[in-house]
């Protein structure tokens, strides 16, 4: 299991989404985040990749 941590921007690039959408996904419980002492959200790469696979399975042609 890869424990690499991604910032909001990194997760957004990995998923081809906006940073605001990533924040919304976290608030909705679709993507779990850890917080630094300063309040920055960090996401596990494995969670981001799982969400990417789930999104692709739900929409294999990439249509939103």
Question: Can you walk me through this structure?
Answer:
- The protein is an alpha+beta fold and 64 residues long.
- 50% of the residues lie in helices and 12% in strands.
- Helix 1 crosses helix 2 (19-28).
User: Mind describing the biggest β-sheet?
Assistant: 3 strands, antiparallel
Radius of gyration: 12 Å
Order of helices and strands: EHHEEH
Query: What does the average pLDDT come to?
Result: 92
Strand neighbour order, sheet with most strands: 1-3-2
- Overall helicity: 40-55%
Distance between the termini: 29 Å
| Strand percent estimate | 5-15%
Low-confidence stretches: none
Shape: globular
Q: Helix/strand/pairing class, anyone?
A: alpha+beta
Tally of strands:
3
- SS element count, helices: 3
Brief summary of the model shown:
The protein is α+β, with helices and mostly antiparallel strands and 64 residues long.
What order do the helices and strands come in, and which of them pair?
Layout: E1 5-6, H1 8-15, H2 19-28, E2 34-35, E3 41-44, H3 45-58
Antiparallel strand pairs: 1-3, 2-3
Helix pairs in contact: 1-2
List the main descriptive attributes of the protein structure presented here.
64 residues, alpha+beta, three-stranded antiparallel beta sheet, 3 strands, 50% helix, globular
